[in-house]
Amino acid sequence: MESVFTFLFKYRPLLFEEGDVVFQPPLPAVLLLLVVAVAIALVAWTYRRPMAKARRTDRIALAAVRVAAFAVLFFCLLRPALVLSSVVPQQNYLGILIDDSRSMRIADDGGEPRSSFVAESFAEPDAALLKALESRFQLRFFRFSSQADRLEAVQDLAFDGGRTTIAPALDRVREELGALPLSGVVLVTDGADVGADLPDDGTSALSESLLALRAAGVPVFPIGIGRESYDRDVELSRVSAPREVLKGTSLVVDLMVAQTGYSGERVTVLVEDAGRIVGSEEIELPRAGEPTPVRVQFTAEESGPRRFRFRVPAQDGERVLENNEQEALIHVRDVREKILYFEGEPRFEVAFLRRAVAADSNLQVVTLQRTADSKFMRLDVDSATELFSGFPTTREELFSYRALILGSIEASHFTHEQLRMIAEFVSERGGSLLMLGGRHAFAEGGYAGTPVADALPVSLDPRFSRDTTFFDTVRVSLTRAGAAQPALRIAASDRETAERWRSLPEPTTYNRVGALKAGAVALLNGDGRQTGEQPVLAWQRYGRGQAFALPVQDTWIWQMHADIPLEDQTHETFWRQLMRWLVSDVPQPVVAAVASDHVAPGDPIRITADVSDDRFTKVNDGRVLARVTGPDGSQQEVPMSWTVGRDGEYHATATAAGPGLYTVAVTAERDGRVLRGSPVYAWAEERRDEFFGSQMRAPLLRRIADETGGRFYTAANAAALAEDIAYTGRGATVQETRDLWDMPILFIALVGLLGVEWVYRRWRGLA
Amino acid sequence: MRPSLSRPLRSALPAAAVLLLAGSALRGAGSRVEARNGDDPARHAFAFTRGIYSESGRGWGRSWAIDYPKADRQFLTVLRRLTILDAYDSEHAVALDDPELRRYPFVYMLEVGDMALTPEESAGLRSYLLSGGFAFIDDFWGTWQWQNFAQEMRRVLPEYPIVDLPLDHPIFSSFYRIEEILQVPSINNIRRGRTWEQDGYDPFVRAVFDDTGRLMMLINGNTDLGDAWEWAEQPDYPLKYSTFAYQMGANAIVYAMSH
User: What is the pTM of this model?
Assistant: First the structure.
């Protein structure tokens, strides 16, 4: 379209947009007007008289055509011209910013890599675009990926940068060339800037950069390299996995899958741990362009920091394979987590629950069971003194456990201080509380109105206090929230899990629990024969921890019932997974974290630590040290400083010098006592972000152009760049006048009008 | 206790006859015996459940019901006083081949010397034990009865041996601390001045464990704990035997409900 315009009007539309049309008549305007008037009068006089065969309308039509032809001639006689502000050759500078990231290697344009445009247009001395630019501007080349640098020779580009960040690159050019007469910045990129996807609230880095360029009057001319969409591609765009799990945990990880060209096809998502396939999930690919969540399940069998790789094997015709995989660094902890189970009476739930997790070497269910008035049995204690005096009476003792299970034990067994301590075990220590159903649990156990009731996810009705007459059988079903919870997955697939829950034998309950509290969710519902629906498993966050309610008393029926085959593992799986959930994410007194567990070599590792004492009271005056061990065994000891803004929070920064695994161990010392946190890890390698969402991002590049007053180009129309910048750029300019009287459109119009007159005459037989 | 024509039992003959007839009728008509007290054993944390089984022609045809229901009731009365167990307070019996048995993870079986399980009962007991049930065996005497019972158990659990249970096993300290295995005599024998029957001179406690080391079956041989429960109120029955019998029963139940 633009070429047609240029053919007709001699110049490209941009020049008309940028310039002003003026008239430079060779004769005085009055004289020209006189000539026009005479010509029109002559026409009018010629067609005034009746002609043979000619009707009045013929004469008017012919006169109009003739007048129009004279008007075109008159326009030419006025000598129209285009006045443009053109940069003064070699007086202005032009920054050329070239994307040096790995996505430029993607060969999505007829098999040629994106970088070939750079080579063809800027690397060869006689390249047309380069010559056109050099003839007008002083060129300054920069390369950029995660950071920007001056580029001495275009041949030095390696296209191995791990990440494209446009904003800092633009800032760099503006700062370096800002003092010079700068006509603009040419930005050669595919625009695959992941950071630019962040919601633009006016404060993002790119918005600020563009604002600064606009204020400085520096237009940006992006040249978008690559295709805006791929014909055939599968992309695993995101992985959501916990950073830390217990060894042997069955993990369910969410992935986002997008594709083009493979709608409806079935592919397998593989999970690998050190090259060994540990899980797989066959999925049906979603519709083109619609990222869809996919869940894969696998078990973390090997302990230590593990890099799990999730990948979709290369599909037929797929060009970009680097975006078919994602990695997650997960710390698989091989420790034994202690859970305190306090049971108020002998009942089979104790035996079956303990048996269900007995084979799990990472769980230690310390059981305190009342067998007679004031008589307790202790099971799986670590020492002769553990729980010797019954239920813990101090925070240090109770808070040494990661989770607490309360069975059928009435609230009046505890002192008020103990009840408050149990609630604080959840809210302050960050532990998990699970209350089981029973004759002396929930409202029936007198918990309504106690601090423990505050922590529970269900409300308790004081009218039922100590009322042990209620008894009901409930049919269990999995809720929508429960279906999303890996701990409740008791079969191979989501559908089978839901069916399995529905088919389980019905447990019984003594407890009438009230409505769910705000923020609580029911994971399992029970359809009671007497009471209708009530939660069978409910959950909520309470302060730093989480609280669960399981108001049934005999889940052992899921193991023992005659309908359950001997080899069935539902009961064991349920309890094992639930117990592992109880102890997951339960903090230690010192909790270290890294801002990102994947960094690029040379990037900072930002470390934070949350420091408390044994009573889980925040410590602001501790001596906190982060010891960072690099892949080569070298150690950095980085003192951590209190952030002041939050109690107990410390921060520090180390550097990932080279690629590999970095182990961060934080210790806190106070009053001669040393507390250690669980180590955290960061993996340093060149980032592969470039290959995700790696299609050319035309909207982003257009936005950059629009907001700075530049123009957006693609490789196809980049040839016009030099001229366009010459007329639209900033810097030292000079006025330039270009004739328009010889525009082809005028000649065509004149010939056309005369032709029309001739055809008309022939048609009407007037010639 | 094996019924005989000794004087104490003669006095109880009418009641025993009624009971045995009732038991026999129930065995033929169905597979459960529950007290008609309006209560439901499933509503309680524990029901003292007897296993109803078949026996060879040498037995009484109702060996499972020996001492029933008096022993059960007296034992439960004492158990409820000693512990805080929410126990169903009446007798309760279920056949080994009845799926209902799987609702009661503790089963008491006695007089197993003449046990001759049907294939269905054998399969029922096997699945009961392997799915998590606990069997408490009592009241059989001498070499022949032991061999018969051991042979039956080899049919039920061929891959799991019967082993002696040492006194340092946790079951001997789960509620009471038991430091010695006493031979508990039937009331008839104690009146004759002896504690043994047939050639069962030495009491023993043996067990069967599953693959994970869980105790599935506790076998009290050459002893009659049930009689000690049944006749504990008799002034001529020595307290030390009934005390031991109650201790063993309480320990086994507390252990089974916690391990």
Answer: 0.76
Q: Across the beta sheet with A325-333, what order do the strands follow?
A: A244-246, A325-333, A304-311, A266-273, A276-284
Residue A56, pLDDT > 60, answer yes
| Neighbour tally for A672: CB within 10 Å | 5
| Nearest CA-CA partner of A730 in A703, A708, A700 | A708
B82/A contact by beta carbon, under 8 A: yes
Strands A403-406 and A521-528: unpaired
CB-closest option in A346, A350, A556 to B85: A346
CA distance A414 to chain B (A): 17
Write out pLDDT tens, residues A181-214.
Answer: 888 999 999 887 755 554 444 447 888 889 999 9
Strand B92-95 versus strand B32-34 pairing type: antiparallel
Q: In the predicted model, is pLDDT for residue A230 greater than 50?
A: yes
Task: Identify from A349, A354, A560 which residue to disrupt to test chain B contact, counting B C-beta atoms within 10 A and taking the largest count.
Answer: A560
Question: What is the 8-class DSSP label of residue A122?
Answer: I
Give the distance from residue B85's alpha carbon to the nearest chain A alpha carbon, in angstroms: 6
Q: Please answer whether residues A520 and A538 qualify as being in contact, where contact means their C-beta atoms are separated by less than 8 angstroms.
A: yes
Interface contacts A/B by beta carbons within 8 Å: 89
pLDDT digits (tens, 9 = 90+) for A248-271: 888 888 899 988 888 888 999 999
Residue among B251, B39, B168 at smallest CA distance from A372? B251
Q: Residue A267, SS3?
A: strand
- Token pair for A404: 């607490």
Q: How far is A464 from chain B (nearest CA, A)?
A: 18
**ipTM score:** 0.89
Of A346, A358, A373, the CB nearest to B254: A346
CB atoms within 10 A of CB A649: 17
- The one-letter code for the residue type at A676 is R
Nearest chain A CA: its distance from B214 CA (Å)? 8
- Sequence-distant (6+) residues with CB within 8 A of B158 are none
Both tokens of A298, joined, read 């696998």
pLDDT at B10: 39
- What average pLDDT is seen over chain B? 88
The pLDDT value recorded for residue A277 is: 93
Please report where in the chains the tokens 């182990």 appear, as a residue.
A663
Max Cα distance, chain B (Å)? 48
Mean pLDDT of all residues belonging to chain A: 89
CB nearest B84 (choices: A370, A561, A566): A370
> Cβ distance A640 to A651 under 8 Å?
yes
Q: How many CA atoms lie less than 13 Å away from A720 in the CB half-sphere?
A: 17
The shortest CB-CB distance from A377 to any of B100, B174, B214 is to B174
Mean predicted confidence (pLDDT) in A380-392 = 95
Closest CA to A336 of A366, A301, A368: A366
Q: Which chain A residue is nearest to residue B106, measuring alpha carbons?
A: A348
Q: What's residue A13's pLDDT?
A: 84
The nearest CA of chain A is from the CA of B80 a distance in Å of 9
DSSP E strands: which ranges in B111-230?
Answer: 134-138, 162-164, 204-209, 215-221
The whole-number pLDDT of residue B22 equals 42
Please give the residue of chain A at the shortest CA–CA distance from B211. A359
Whether residue B247 lies within 8 A of chain A, CB to CB, comes out as no
**Of the given ranges (A25-34, A461-470, B93-102), which has the lowest mean pLDDT?**
A25-34
A560 to B131: CB separation less than 8 angstroms, yes or no: yes
User: Is A576 within 8 Å of A363 (Cβ atoms)?
Assistant: yes
- Is there a contact between B256 and A355 if contact means CB atoms under 8 Å apart? no
DSSP A505: P
**A752 contact B CB<8A:** no
**Of the partner residues A372, A508, A562, the one whose CB lies closest to the CB of residue B84:** A372
